[in-house]
């Protein structure tokens, strides 16, 4: 299967993740693309953020056969596929907390290395806590409403980030969403 204009974000994520993993490169999908996948497209994204310790030249060599070319720095584009790739610097973290483990998601025979639903919620809450990004709170609620999330872990992390009060805002919004209000 090749990447083209009709490829879904999950197909692109799966092919990119599988190619990088096969080359021995760790790269973990995070950000808006993870939200799009976990919410079945409720919050669309046009870029895929893969956090990786690998150098951009090393990544470039793996992505070239998939049709991606390096635009500048950490950004890669495809001539026909609308999804761009970005490779933020390692370490993988949510807020100030480094992550040593993450999840995988199957797409057909491919696997995407990506944040777990709990980590995805924390990632979106980090944007809400630090930049007051209301859409990020809505995204955290959407992921938390449709997936099992370890709320004790999110609570502990929120307190460590200095945002225990905002965590309660998240819980209230999550409860309202789950009730359908």
Q: Could you give a quick summary of the protein structure above?
A:
The chain is an alpha+beta fold and about 180 residues long. The protein has helices spanning about 10-20, 30-40, 55-65, 115-130, 135-145, 150-160, 165-180; strands spanning about 30, 45-50, 70, 75, 85, 95, 95-100, 105, 110-115.
Could you explain the architecture of this structure?
This protein has helices spanning 9-22, 31-38, 56-63, 117-131, 134-146, 151-160, 164-179; strands at 28-30, 47-51, 69-72, 75-77, 84-86, 93-94, 97-98, 103-107, 110-114. The strands form three sheets. The chain has a five-stranded mixed β-sheet with strand order 1-2-5-4-3. A two-stranded antiparallel sheet has the order 6-7. A two-stranded antiparallel ribbon has the order 8-9. The chain is built from seven helices and nine strands. It is an alpha+beta fold. It is globular.
Give the proportion of residues in helices.
Answer: 40-55%
CATH topology of the largest domain: Beta Polymerase, domain 2
- What characterizes the major β-sheet? 5 strands, mixed
Order of helices and strands: HEHEHEEEEEEEHHHH
Counting DSSP H or I runs of 4 or more residues, the number of helices is 7
Report the span from N to C terminus: 41 Å
The strand line-up of the biggest sheet is 1-2-5-4-3
| The CATH architecture of the largest domain | 2-Layer Sandwich
**pLDDT averaged over residues:** 96
Determine Rg (CA atoms, Å): 16 Å
| Structural shape | globular
> What structural class results from the helix and strand content?
alpha+beta
| Low-pLDDT sequence parts | none
Q: What number of domains? A: 2
């Amino acid at each position: 299967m090749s990447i083209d204009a009709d490829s879904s974000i999950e197909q692109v994520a799966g092919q990119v993740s599988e190619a990088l993993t096969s080359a021995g490169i760790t790269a973990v999908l995070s950000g808006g693309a993870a939200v799009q996948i976990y919410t079945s497209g409720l919050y669309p994204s046009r870029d895929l953020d893969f956090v990786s310790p690998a150098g951009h030249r090393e990544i470039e060599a793996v992505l070239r056969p998939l049709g991606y070319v390096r635009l500048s720095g950490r950004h890669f584009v495809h001539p026909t596929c609308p999804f761009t790739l970005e490779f933020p610097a390692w370490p993988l973290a949510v807020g100030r907390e480094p992550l040593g483990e993450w999840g995988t998601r199957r797409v057909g025979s491919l696997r995407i290395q990506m944040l777990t639903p709990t980590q995805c919620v924390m990632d979106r809450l980090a944007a809400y806590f630090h930049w007051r990004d209301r859409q990020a709170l809505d995204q955290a609620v959407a992921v938390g409403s449709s997936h099992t999330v370890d709320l004790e872990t999110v609570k502990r992390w929120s307190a460590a980030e200095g945002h225990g009060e905002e965590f309660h805002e998240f819980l209230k919004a999550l409860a309202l969403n789950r009730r359908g209000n």
